Amino acid sequence: MVCTICYDSLFKQPVKNNNNNNNNRRRNTGQGHRPAALSCGHTFHKGCINRWVSSSSSYNCPICGVFAETDPTVLFIELGEEDAKHIVSDNANAGNSSNSSSSSSSNNGGRSKPADIDDLVEHITRMSLREKRESEKREADIESKLKAVEEELRSIKTQLNDSQNSANWYKGEVTRLERLSERHVDNINGLHRALHNKKCDLEELEDEFDEFKRSYGHYY
């Protein structure tokens, strides 16, 4: 199974190359050398598809042209050195005779090893894409719940502000009524004092009148 961009095996082990002038046939290493699947299911080297996307005006699959809805999903498939050599050798000798193919098939339980690897890659690709879709769905659900919680918090905050404003208004009204009540109490106390003074004045006048009658009553 080969990457249709660089035509190298998807499972070819990365080779360290210290020659900086060999840029035309630069091979991927590390993460960029791993197989990566687009949302349509086609698989390439991670580095190859990244370079394809960066050099293209649209994010379409190089094989089927379908728009890639998500970033490439890296397939973490670990192969031993012998398996990798076997796959590369089979890819290089894909044009061998049918007898050689039949012999290889019989030695592998009736199926060629590249076919087994292709099935494995296809299965892992489907599983990876399904897991990615499920992960994106879970992420969308969490974001939706988070937005609902944030909206509820905003509503509670608004209600709290309204309640605080109402409390401040009532507090102001209570203060105003307390001051008004104090003024009324002062007025009432003032009236009581005035009434008391009038009573005292009246008593003094009555005393003076009684004294007047005692002194000059025989003239009447």
From TrEMBL:
SUPFAM superfamilies: RING/U-box. GO terms for biological process: interstrand cross-link repair; protein ubiquitination. Residues 90-118 are annotated as: Disordered. Residues 91-110 have a biased composition (Low complexity). GO terms for cellular component: nucleus. Pfam families: zf-rbx1. Residues 132-215 form a coiled coil. One of its GO terms (molecular function) is zinc ion binding. Keywords: Coiled coil, Metal-binding, Ubl conjugation pathway, Zinc, Zinc-finger. Residues 3-64 form the RING-type domain. InterPro entries: RFWD3, Znf_RING, Znf_RING/FYVE/PHD, Znf_RING_H2. This is RING-type domain-containing protein. It comes from Coemansia erecta.
